[in-house]
């Protein structure tokens, strides 16, 4: 069954002095059925994090513009985006007194196929209707403790070291980049990219239900509103991108 794509990107500065997240949604210059969504959560002192996150989004757009799907796989494109951003962020350390780093999560939609990659603790969720299909695993200390069975979801949310990352772009270590994909997609599938300023306040089920029940724009407004309420004056920057596959409009013939 045919479908169309409904999208939305949204941000809120939260209770921080500066917005250091970046998010973008771009189409291929000659292949409009190819869509890239990208989100980065920057870290590194005043303006350093914003600069790092900006480089991730810039590299995403630049690499998408020269993407040749007949000669390059989706994983090669996404891997080059994150590797290129990592290199540029590291180079900025030599020209400034800052220590910039960034997380990154990026999704490439090609027709009925989606491929994604991530580094850090910004997340991608894949929903089918109101059910969760997949979620990226955080490259964080708390995420590792959860994988080892030493913390449950409730304990992870309140752990004092929940913001400690084990991998990110711009660090001295090569970034840990993980990939995922979904094939033969149909209407009813949706994808959410978001920073920890959003996902920290929701269960997977609540995110799935909200995205399912609303349009992309209404879901974004609802999620940001609830996150702001639950942060109670102590919220981080919030960024998100929603990609929903919805029924194609019916054509009327005379």
Per-chain topology:
Layout lengths: L2 E10 L8 E7 L6 E10 L4 H18 L8 H19 L8 E2 L1 E7 L2 E7 L3 E6 L2 E5 L5 H7 L5 H6 L19 E5 L6 E6 L1 H4 L4 H10 L2 H16 L6 E10 L7
Antiparallel strand pairs: 1-11, 2-3, 3-4, 3-5, 5-6, 6-9, 7-8, 7-10, 10-11
Q: What this model shows, in words?
A:
- This protein is of the alpha+beta class.
- It has one domain: PPM-type phosphatase domain (Phosphatase 2c, domain 1, 4-Layer Sandwich).
- It is 31% helix and 30% strand.
- It has 7 helices and 11 strands.
- The chain has helices at residues 48-65, 74-92, 141-147, 153-158, 196-199, 204-213, 216-231, and strands at residues 3-12, 21-27, 34-43, 101-102, 104-110, 113-119, 123-128, 131-135, 178-182, 189-194, 238-247.
- The strands form 2 sheets. Strands 2, 3, 4, 5, 6 and 9 form a 6-stranded antiparallel sheet that branches.
- Helix 6 (204-213) packs antiparallel against helix 7 (216-231).
- The longest helix has 19 residues, at 74-92.
- The mean pLDDT is 92.
C-alpha-based Rg, rounded:
18 Å
Order of helices and strands: EEEHHEEEEEHHEEHHHE
Number of strands: 11
Shape: globular
- How many helices? The count is 7
Runs in which pLDDT lies below 50 for 5 or more consecutive residues are none
Derived structural class: alpha+beta
Number of domains as seen in the coordinates: 1
CATH topology: Phosphatase 2c, domain 1
Question: Helical content, roughly?
Answer: 25-40%
Tell me the major beta sheet: 6 strands, antiparallel
| Assigned CATH class | Alpha Beta
CATH architecture: 4-Layer Sandwich
The first-to-last residue Cα distance is: 23 Å
Mean pLDDT comes to: 92
CATH superfamily: PPM-type phosphatase domain
Strand residue content: 25-35%
Protein name: PP2C family protein-serine/threonine phosphatase
Pfam family, one: PP2C_2
Domain PPM-type phosphatase: 6-245
EC number: 3.1.3.16
């Amino acid at each position: 069954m045919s479908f169309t794509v409904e999208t939305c990107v949204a941000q809120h500065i939260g209770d921080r002095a500066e917005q250091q997240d970046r998010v973008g949604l771009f189409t291929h210059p000659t292949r409009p059925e190819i869509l890239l969504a990208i989100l980065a959560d920057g870290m590194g002192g005043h303006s350093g994090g914003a600069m790092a996150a900006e480089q991730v989004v810039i590299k995403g757009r630049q690499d998408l513009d020269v993407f040749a799907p007949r000669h390059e796989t989706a994983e090669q494109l996404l891997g080059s985006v994150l590797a290129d951003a990592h290199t540029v962020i590291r180079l900025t350390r030599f020209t400034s007194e800052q220590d910039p780093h960034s997380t990154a999560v990026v999704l490439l939609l090609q027709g009925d196929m989606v491929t994604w990659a991530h580094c850090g603790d910004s997340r991608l969720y894949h929903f089918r209707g109101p059910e969760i299909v997949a979620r990226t695993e955080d490259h964080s200390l708390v995420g590792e403790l959860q994988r080892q069975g030493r913390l449950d979801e409730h304990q992870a949310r309140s752990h004092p070291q929940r913001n400690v990352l084990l991998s990110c772009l711009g660090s001295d270590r090569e970034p840990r980049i993980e990939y995922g994909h979904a094939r033969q997609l149909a209407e009813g599938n949706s994808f959410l990219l978001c920073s920890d300023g959003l996902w920290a306040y929701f269960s997977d089920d609540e995110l799935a239900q909200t995205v399912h029940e609303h349009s992309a724009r209404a879901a974004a407004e609802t999620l940001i509103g609830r996150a702001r309420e639950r942060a109670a004056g102590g919220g981080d920057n919030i960024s998100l991108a929603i990609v929903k596959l919805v029924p194609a409009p019916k054509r009327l013939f005379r």
